[in-house]
Amino acid sequence: xxxxxxxxxxxxxxxxxxxxxxxxxxxxxxxxxxxxxxxxxxxxxxxxxxxxxxxxxxxxxxxxxxxxxxxxxx
Length: 74
Prior knowledge:
The chain is an all-alpha fold. Helix content is 59%, strand content 0%. The radius of gyration is 11 Å and the shape is globular. The model has no long low-confidence stretch (mean pLDDT 89).
């Protein structure tokens, strides 16, 4: 799976820095809605909507799938 440079940046801010949408928006110098859209695109690309474990938040699931897919190193 290919992610854009912007999506990789959003993924790193989400997973490595544990930033909220607000924090990511500030760090990337974009509007809050843009940061939220970035996270939503990551969820779609990583197929998080079909995540079956209801005890895991979608944001944690994004990080777990990114590590599993070798898009992100811990």
